[in-house]
Structures are given as structure tokens and as C-alpha cells.
Design brief:
alpha+beta, C8orf32 fold, four-stranded antiparallel sheet, two-stranded parallel ribbon, 8 helices
Length: about 230
């Protein structure tokens, strides 16, 4: 398990910002399941759902910014888990862009690839690897989307969510695997010891589109997310 506990460039849990958080939250005084639950809930709700400038932000930067999407929130989750001695790894995926309908304006979707890279965190607990994905969407935003579609039943894909049941997604951690975007996954890219090695092989955008996303488009998307998060229907 030692390779799943290493500090890396992206999983920089020795950074003073992350070490201060771990100390303030007293996570090291908890047993592994309690610590995992507390860290999971922190990343899910204290780090809001929103689109980061790039997937390759290190954990201390994601923590400082206070928001992220699947890949960047996953980096922070992994760093915090390793910081308290809980082994974890990443599984990469190809995912359909259809889950962004509603949260990303249509004209931006026409510029985006139809398939993008996605990841979730797998944690080793009590002799079993658990799949964790439900932390991506914060509960305030989720509640707003649930309210907006309160009469919807069955599979739901859109607004950053892809789940068999919008009103009862399996996103809360109770010692089992969690999911919130799994229903849009197309294929697995395999397991990686850390996000560093994953992003050395895979990236979502390049060239002009990457520049446009980083400096313009993501800000428009994040404004839409903020409007949705606090909307009342």
C-alpha cells in the first residue's frame, strides 16, 4: 500500500495549507472510517462544485480556491486521505459531455468535445477498494437541481449530474461506494497510483480551445452554476 500513500507534485499533502487543515479538523485523532467520512464530507460540501482552470492543479491550490470539478476535487480528496494515512488511487474514464447540458450554455457545448476525461477516487478500507465519486456535487447545488426537477423520476442526466435517480442519488458516504456522474461514463482508462501519472497521459483540451476555456468559458459556466445553486423554484 505504500505507493498509495506517497506525496506527489499534485498530491502535495505536506503543504502547510493542507497540514493546517488536517490539524484544525483533528482528523488524525479519528479512526480511518471516521476520518474518511469527515474528509469526504468536507470535499463534497466545503469545496463547491465549479470548473477549475485546469485539471492539473495541485491539492493545496484547489483547497485555497474552494471549488472544483471531478478531477480537481478528486486531487484534493486524495491528498487529504493520504495525509491521514488512508491509501487511495485514481481510476480514469472517458465520459460523455451530455451531463453538462443545462449547466453549460448550448453555444459553449458546440465548441466542446463530445467526450472528456473523468476520474474518481478509490480508497482502500478494511481490505476492500471503495469507489468514491459522489463528492463532486455539493449538497446545496444538488438540492437546487432536485427542487428544479422535483417531479422527475428515473434516470437523470444533465446539470453536471448523471444518476439513476436524481431524488435519491447514492452520493452520501456510509461506508460504501458513492456515485453522482457514473451514468455518463463510456469506458475506463484504468487505475493510476496518482493523478500526476494520469494527466501525463490524458488531457481534455489543447491549443486555442484550452485557452478559451481557461480564461473565458469556464467563468461563464461558473456564473451559471452559482445562479443555479441559489435559485428557488
Amino acid at each position: 500500500m505504500q505507493q498509495y500513500l506517497l506525496d506527489t507534485h499534485l498530491l502535495n499533502y505536506t503543504h502547510h495549507r493542507i497540514q493546517t487543515l488536517i490539524t484544525q479538523k483533528q482528523w488524525l485523532s479519528l479512526d480511518q472510517q471516521q476520518a474518511l467520512t469527515a474528509i469526504y464530507n468536507f470535499v463534497m460540501d466545503d469545496i463547491r462544485f465549479g470548473y477549475s482552470s485546469e485539471d492539473t492543479l495541485n491539492a493545496s491550490t484547489v483547497l485555497h480556491q474552494g471549488y472544483g470539478q471531478c478531477n480537481t476535487k478528486g486531487t484534493l480528496l486524495m491528498a487529504l486521505l493520504r495525509g491521514v494515512g488512508i491509501p487511495c488511487r485514481l481510476q480514469g474514464f472517458i465520459i460523455s459531455n451530455n451531463l453538462k447540458q443545462g449547466v453549460v450554455p448550448r453555444w459553449i457545448l458546440t465548441l466542446a468535445p463530445t467526450q472528456i476525461i473523468h476520474s474518481w477516487v478509490e480508497v482502500y478500507l478494511d481490505g476492500t477498494w471503495l469507489e468514491l465519486e459522489g463528492y463532486i456535487i455539493d449538497n446545496t447545488y444538488l438540492a437546487a437541481i432536485q427542487s428544479r426537477f422535483k417531479t422527475h423520476h428515473g434516470r437523470f442526466v444533465g446539470y453536471g449530474i448523471a444518476t439513476p435517480c436524481l431524488q435519491k442519488p447514492k452520493n452520501q458516504f456510509y461506508g460504501q461506494s458513492t456515485y453522482i456522474q457514473r451514468d455518463s461514463i463510456i469506458s475506463s482508462l484504468g487505475h493510476f497510483e496518482d493523478p500526476d501519472s494520469f494527466y501525463q497521459q490524458y488531457q481534455n483540451l489543447s491549443g486555442t480551445k484550452r485557452w478559451l476555456y481557461k480564461y473565458l468559458l469556464r467563468h461563464i459556466i461558473n456564473q451559471r452554476i452559482a445562479q443555479l445553486r441559489y435559485s428557488v423554484t
